[in-house]
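Q: Here's a chain of 135 amino acids. Please give me its 3D structure as C-alpha cells.
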Amino acid sequence: MTLMPDACFAIELKVRDYELDAQGVVNNAVYLNYLEHCRHEFLLSRGIDFNRYAREGIDQVVVRCELDYKAPLRGGDSFRVTLALERVSPLRFAFLQEVRRLGDDRLVLVARTIGTAINSKGRPFLPPDMERLLA
C-alpha cells in the first residue's frame, strides 16, 4: 500500500495502558479503533452523524480494511491519525489513513478502509451529504 495523499483531517491521541498486549506494544486490533474514531470525528466535523443515519434506517458499513503495520506504539506514546477521502466507485468510498508517532513523526501504520451505506431496504447507496463530501 502506498502512502496516502495530503490529509484533510487529523486527530491526536495517546496510548492507554489497557491497549497493550503481552509484548508491551499496542495490540494490532486496537489500531482499528483508532482509525474508526478518526473517521467518525471527521464525518461529524462535516455534519454527518452515524447516530442520525441509524435513526433514519441508514447504515454506514465497512466492506474492506487493509492495514500495513510499520512500527509499534508503546504505552504512553502520543500519536496522530490522519485521513484523506477518495471515491472508489459510484457507491463506495475509501478512507486513506496514517498513524504517526508524535515527537519523531515515525510512520506506525498505513490503512485503506472501503465503505458504503445501506438504505432501509438493504440496498447500497450514498446519502446526499456523503455524495457532496465526495464531489
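Q: Can you summarize the key feature?
A: The chain has a mean pLDDT of 93.
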